[in-house]
Design goal:
Elements lengths: L3 H6 L3 H17 L9 H59 L1 E2 L2 E2 L1 H11 L1 H11 L11 E4 L5 E6 L5 E4 L9 E4 L4 E4 L16 H31 L8 H33 L6 H12 L5 H24 L5 H12 L5 H32 L8 H4 L18 E2 L1 H11 L3 H10 L3 E2 L3
Parallel strand pairs: 8-9
Antiparallel strand pairs: 1-2, 3-4, 4-5, 6-7
Helix pairs in contact: 2-3, 3-4, 4-5, 7-9, 7-11, 8-9, 9-10, 10-11, 13-14
Length: 438
C-alpha cells in the first residue's frame, strides 16, 4: 500500500514545490489571528498558493530548458567556425607546400587540397586547368621602369606580355598649353611630370568681359530687390493700434482654450459617473461636505460649483462682440437654472463648448483680417490655442520649520491643477503638510 512519501515521490518537481507552498500557506493562515478565518478560506489560500507556485516553477523550468538549447546552438556554431578556420589553414599550408624551388606544382596542390576538402579541390582543379589568356594582336609602347619605351601586348584577362627587341620610332607631337604650343616626345615623359597650362589671350579677354557683365547685372538685380523689399507692406511692422487689436483677439483665443479644457474635464466626470446632479443628491452632497464625510461625487460637485461662475464670465467675455454673444448668454442662463438634472447639465455643457469653439474660430478670422489689411500673412495661433497650465501655488513654510498649507493655498492649487480641494488636501497631508489657517 502506497504511503504519503510514495505519493510525494511520484510528483513532478513543480508539483512538489506547489504542495510545499500550499502547506506553508495553510500553516501560516492557521495561526492565531484577530480576524476569524474559516476552513474554506484557509484551504482556498493553500490551493491558490499551490497553483501559483507550480506555474512559476514550470515557467522557470521552461526558461532553463530554453537557455540550455541556446547554449548548445552557440557551442555548435563555435565548433563549426573553428573547424572552418582549421580547414582554411590546412589548405593554405598545402598551397604553400606545392610552391617549391622548381615553381608551383599544380598537380601536387590539387591532390593536397583534395585530401582536405574534395569540393574545394575540384574548384582549384577547374581554375588551374582553364584556357590561358588570349593576347590581342595589337602592339603598344609604354614607358618601362627606366623611363624608356618598351613594346607590350595586353591579354583579355588584363595581363601584360613584354615583347623584347622592339622599339618605337621617335615621335614628336604638339601639346597646346593655352598661351603657347610645345613639341614633346610622348615616350620620354616621366611619371608625375606636369606642364603649366595658361589661358590664351582671346580666352583671357573673353573672361574679363564676362566678369564685367556679371558685375553690372548683379548690381542692377540688387537695386531691383532693394526697391521691391522697401515697397512690400509685409516687411513693415503692424501699427500700434492694429497690434493692440490683434493681441486682444489672441488673448481671447487663449481664454477659449482654457475654458474648453475645464469643460472637457467636467464632461468626463459626468460620463464616468463621478459627478451627478439631482435635487436630493445635491443637498446630500452639500451635507456630506459640511459634515467632513465627503465622497468623490460630493467633492466634484463642490469643485464644479466653485468654478462655474468663473467659467461663465470667461465664456461671455470670449463671445462678446462676435456673432455667438446671444447664444452664449442663453446657454449659460439655462445651465444655471437647471442644475438638478445630470443629462440636462451635460447637454448644456456640450452646447456651450460648441458656442465657444465657434467664437474662437471667429477670433482667428479677426486676426487674419487685421493682418491682411496691412499686407501680412496669416499668423500661426497654435501656441495661443494650447496655453501652458498655470503653475500651482506652493504651500507656505511654517516658522518652526514644519510645512503648513493654508486653505487659500489649497484652493489656489485645486484651481490650477483641475483637481478637487479634497484631493489636494489628501495629497498635501501625504507629503507631511499641516492643514490650517486662511
Amino acid at each position: 500500500m502506497a504511503g504519503l512519501l510514495d505519493f510525494l515521490n511520484n510528483q513532478s518537481p513543480e508539483q512538489r514545490q506547489g504542495l510545499l507552498a500550499a502547506a506553508a500557506q495553510i500553516l501560516q493562515q492557521s495561526g492565531p489571528s484577530r480576524t476569524p478565518t474559516s476552513l474554506g478560506q484557509i484551504l482556498g489560500g493553500g490551493i491558490s498558493a499551490y497553483q501559483q507556485t507550480e506555474q512559476q516553477a514550470r515557467h522557470l523550468g521552461q526558461l532553463e530548458q530554453m537557455r540550455g538549447l541556446q547554449l548548445q546552438e552557440a557551442q555548435a556554431g563555435l565548433a563549426d567556425r573553428q573547424s572552418a578556420r582549421d580547414q582554411e589553414r590546412q589548405i593554405n599550408d598545402a598551397l604553400r607546400g606545392a610552391n617549391g624551388e622548381g615553381g608551383f606544382d599544380a598537380n601536387a596542390a590539387i591532390q593536397a587540397v583534395m585530401r582536405i576538402d574534395p569540393r574545394q579541390g575540384l574548384e582549384l582543379q577547374r581554375s588551374l586547368t582553364k584556357a590561358g589568356p588570349k593576347f590581342d594582336s595589337g602592339i603598344e609602347f609604354v614607358n618601362g621602369p627606366d623611363g624608356k619605351p618598351v613594346a607590350v601586348r595586353t591579354a583579355d584577362d588584363g595581363s601584360v606580355k613584354l615583347l623584347d627587341g622592339l622599339s618605337p620610332r621617335e615621335k614628336l607631337q604638339l601639346e597646346n598649353l593655352g598661351g603657347q604650343s610645345v613639341a614633346v616626345n610622348p615616350y620620354e615623359l616621366q611619371a608625375g611630370q606636369a606642364f603649366q597650362r595658361t589661358a590664351s589671350p582671346d580666352a583671357q579677354l573673353s573672361a574679363a568681359t564676362q566678369r564685367r557683365g556679371q558685375d553690372i547685372t548683379m548690381r542692377g538685380q540688387n537695386m531691383v530687390d532693394a526697391r521691391a523689399a522697401a515697397s512690400n507692406p509685409a516687411n513693415k511692422p503692424l501699427p500700434a493700434a492694429a497690434l493692440k487689436m490683434q493681441q486682444t483677439e489672441l488673448d481671447a483665443l487663449a481664454t477659449a482654450s482654457g475654458i474648453d479644457g475645464q469643460l472637457e474635464r467636467i464632461q468626463g466626470q459626468l460620463d464616468s459617473g463621478k459627478l451627478s446632479f439631482g435635487p436630493v443628491s445635491n443637498l446630500v452632497n452639500r451635507g456630506l461636505n459640511a459634515a467632513g464625510a465627503s465622497t468623490e461625487n460630493s467633492r466634484n460637485l463642490a469643485s464644479f460649483q466653485s468654478t462655474l461662475e468663473k467659467l461663465r464670465n470667461d465664456s461671455l467675455r470670449l463671445n462678446a462682440g462676435v456673432q455667438t454673444d446671444g447664444d452664449a448668454q442663453r446657454a449659460w442662463n439655462e445651465l444655471f437654472t437647471n442644475l438638478n438634472d445630470t443629462q440636462l447639465v451635460q447637454q448644456r455643457l456640450g452646447e456651450i463648448r460648441g458656442i465657444n469653439q465657434r467664437a474662437a474660430q471667429l477670433r482667428k478670422l479677426n486676426v487674419d483680417g487685421i493682418r491682411a489689411n496691412y499686407g501680412h500673412e496669416p499668423l500661426d495661433t497654435s501656441q495661443y490655442e494650447q496655453p501652458a497650465a498655470a503653475p500651482a501655488q506652493q504651500p507656505r513654510q511654517a516658522a518652526a520649520g514644519g510645512k503648513v498649507a493654508t486653505l487659500s493655498d489649497i484652493a489656489a492649487t485645486a484651481r490650477a491643477s483641475g483637481r478637487s480641494t479634497a484631493e489636494v488636501t489628501a495629497a498635501l497631508r501625504a507629503k507631511g503638510y499641516t492643514i490650517g489657517g486662511q
